[in-house]
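pinning this so it doesn't scroll away 📌
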Amino acid sequence: MRTAERIKGRVVEIEVGEAAGFGWVAAGLVLEGFPHEKGILFEAKAQDPIEAETQLRAEIEAFFA
């Protein structure tokens, strides 16, 4: 699953994939925003894809809070 959306005004691509031994991994990349933010990568690991994506969103939002 792959989505592109805005979190607090920044375009973020989120990809959720299964990783052997870890359950599910979600990765998010900040694509736009201030120049120093471009290319920041976030990762979250969880037992299911919804939980992984939820953790990832929370981590990105907390970072830019």
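📌 and the second one:
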Amino acid sequence: MIGAQFVFRLYVTGTTRASARAVVNTRSFCERQLPGRYRLEVVNVADDVDAAVADQVVASPTLIKLQPEPLQRFIGDLSDAARLAGRLQLPAEPALHG
């Protein structure tokens, strides 16, 4: 998947510690796993209920991999990189660039 563009949407709830931690963990994960090959959109459920309903978000935080297909979801603690990579169908280790 070298050169692939990954698109993620992270749903959080307000400016809570859990939401801030989810944003930091997700950005850190993406920088380690997919440096320069991802786009992350952060959506506050309270500010955009319609988007959350459209994406069928039932809990926060929820991370959705929109691209490349297939769409994948990860709900809950985003601190376990190996578990997150597995659920999003990404390699467990960062890709080496030559």
